[in-house]
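Supplementary notes (optional reading)

For those who missed the lab, this is the record we used. Protein: Glutamate-1-semialdehyde 2,1-aminomutase. Length: 425 residues.
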Amino acid sequence: MWSNSVDKNLRERAEAVIPGGMYGHQSVRLLPDDYPQFFDRASGAYLWDVDGNRYIDFMCGYGPNLFGYGQPDIDAAYIDRMKQGDTMTGPAGLMVDLAEQMTALVTHADWAMFCKNGTDATTMAMMIARNHTRRKTIVLAKGAYHGAAPWCTPLRNGVVPSDRAHQIFYDYNSVESLEAAVREAGDDLAAIFASPIKHDTFVDQEDVDPAYARRARELCDETGALLIVDDVRAGLRLARDCSWARVGIEPDLSSWGKSIANGHPISALLGAEKARAAAATIYATGSYWFSAAPMAASLATLKMVRETDYLEHTQVLGERLRSGLNEAATRHGFALRQTGPAVMPLIMFDDDPGLGKGYLWNDALMKRGVYFHPWHNMFICAAMTEKDIDDTLQASDEAFKIVRDAGSIPPVEKLAVLSKLPNAD
Ligand code: PMP
């Protein structure tokens, strides 16, 4: 029987010693009330909260879990390297191996730099583009997430206008809107910053329109600006290459993180030859950027990327989930909006502007051992099995019944704060 007394107690204690009880995207403040905040362990496709409830985890740590939590080969590589020397006065030799392997895997890349968080990589990308072009303006898609530094954090508290200077926004996938933004940048365009797909929160996801990706490439070639693809979230989930390789477009820079070491802390910026000199002359570093153990974990992860059918397996499972949920929804008289690639699904109810149905459904799933998210894309990991998907579908059947029996459901009150926050572009 699902229970949450340990979590409740920790949440109360956290209120006293952690600002707001929790911060950032791992705060459950904007999730259904009973969602657990604290977890105890994770293995394969599963996650256990501090009360011992087990979940099939469709958030995968918000992306890093690609091959399963605690994947034995990857963790053995990490642990062996940690025993030998991890954070040292300089990098281990395997940094070069990793740079060789990442540039061999990713078609557009001739060099690699390693850091810790996705934000490190996206921030370096911006600096390198500005250094390369000696121009200032960055053109970005409205609503796209590129990290939590002052130049890109979605909320404006603590951010001053100069942090956000020299940025122009366009609508993702719209050639017209992109062209207008580039026109507005005039002769000051340093970079077009693009997500590999539209994977914004609260709205339907969209795969990249090849015509838009092609136009972004042309506009950069015409103006001398750099094309950046932010593959921090989607990297290695859609392709064994940069995600835009699927549409035949090679960016000049791509940022990576999350899945590249299956949860061990490392991110990367990859670049093409033309940006090498600019990359070599920015100052970028961090105390833990050269740690060897996450690099060893990344090498083991890349081996699995090359040698297993994880990509095909996750696609098959994602499709099984998508079609099974559609079938169950129809049976219960609902229509779902399942958007984005099947391996990175966002699932919302049609006709649910206040997200009331979605919250009730997600809460019911959570209490039946399935961790879904009501407004952020989710992930399929390679450790999931057909049985996990079928168990999820069975739980969804009961969850649909609960929503159907609830009749008319009011909008989610806690989401009202979103419209009051100092927000967003
Ligand atoms: N870019 C994208 C597309 C992301 O999804 C994220 C993280 N969710 C980031 C950048 C920032 O990564 P990090 O949280 O590791 O700094």
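If you only remember one thing from this example: The chain has a mean pLDDT of 97.
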